[in-house]
Amino acid sequence: MYPYEESYDQFGYLPRQQHQPDYPVPTSPEMDLAQPMIAPPAFTPPFPSWQTGSSGIRRCINRNTYIWLTNGDKFWFFPKFVGRNAVVGFRWRRRLGWIFDVIDLRRIQSYQCF
Prior knowledge:
By secondary structure, the chain is mainly beta. It has a domain at 60-114: SH3 type barrels (Roll). The chain is 0% helix and 32% strand. A hairpin with a 3-residue loop joins β2 and β3. The radius of gyration is 19 Å and the shape is globular.
């Protein structure tokens, strides 16, 4: 008898392992994770040379925010929660609309909220 035999399901498969993120994901019931109802502004703001890094991004919660990442990606984001290591919210995809996303704060090169 194998030690793992009891962990198989009724169809003979091992249960799927849940991926545990290395950042805290908020689960409190009072936090509103509803996606925005309208699209972000139709313009692309210029890169702000005066503001670099993710410091102060908490003031952008529930506001349209343009984010520049260290890898060169740039996009509209609607932050809902800022933790110690990550910001949780919705990223705008032109064809798909608002998509839930989590961004590591170390990846943010700059941002600007509106």
